[in-house]
Write a structure and sequence with these properties.
about 90 residues, mainly beta, single chain
Length: about 90
């Protein structure tokens, strides 16, 4: 595999990982650890338009996007338990 060009999307001192593509092939969903809590973010493939999707204080990790890009499924810690949630995107 030969890479033509790399584009660094994040440059944080915290963990950024578990990326997955949106169907538009221009947006990436990923988890980022902020103050010890994982939150969900999107970012464009050129590194622009960083946006937090998480709300509340519960950690959300390892999300995936539906084929139509309208929903995500994520693992979310609530009351010390890790459960699955489906979230409709606006």
């Amino acid at each position: 595999l030969l890479l033509n060009k790399e584009t660094r999307l994040t440059n944080n001192s915290v963990f950024d990982g578990y990326p997955t593509w949106f169907p538009d092939n221009d947006t990436i969903l990923f988890s980022s650890e902020e103050n010890g809590v994982f939150k969900l973010f999107t970012i464009k493939t050129d590194g622009s338009a960083l946006k937090e999707l998480s709300s509340g204080e519960n950690a959300e990790v390892r999300a995936n996007v539906s084929k139509d890009g309208r929903k995500i499924v994520t693992n979310k810690y609530v009351d010390g338990r890790l459960n699955l949630y489906v979230v409709k995107l606006k």
